[in-house]
Amino acid sequence: MLNTYFRVIVGVMVLLSVVLTFYVNQNWMWFTVFIGVNLIQSAFTKWCLLETILVKLGVKKEGGNCSSC
After folding, report:
1. Fewest Cβ atoms nearer than 10 Å: which of 5, 21, 32, 68?
2. Is the Cβ–Cβ distance between 42 and 66 less than 8 Å?
3. pTM above 0.70, yes or no
């Protein structure tokens, strides 16, 4: 269940940042960069802030973490 929530939230955030970049201001592209950098760092550190937040909100882990998505 955690992987499903993670993928949906990250996908929505990326799409939202692209829409904001196109319609509001080009500086919103930095939000997309931030998301990408967080995904890369979680692959190396095996720690993901979004995963931590989701677990604290009660989402069940299926085994694995963000870097295994």
Report:
1. 68
2. yes
3. yes
The mean per-residue pLDDT over the stretch 12-22 comes to 96
First to last CA, the chain: 12
Task: Give the list of residues 6+ apart from residue 37 with CB closer than 8 angstroms, or none.
Answer: none
- Per residue in 21-37, pLDDT tens? 999 999 999 999 999 99
Identify each DSSP E strand in 8-67 by its residue range. Answer: none
Q: Return phi, psi of residue 63, to 5°.
A: 100, 125
Residue with tokens 């196109």: 22
The amino acid at 55: V
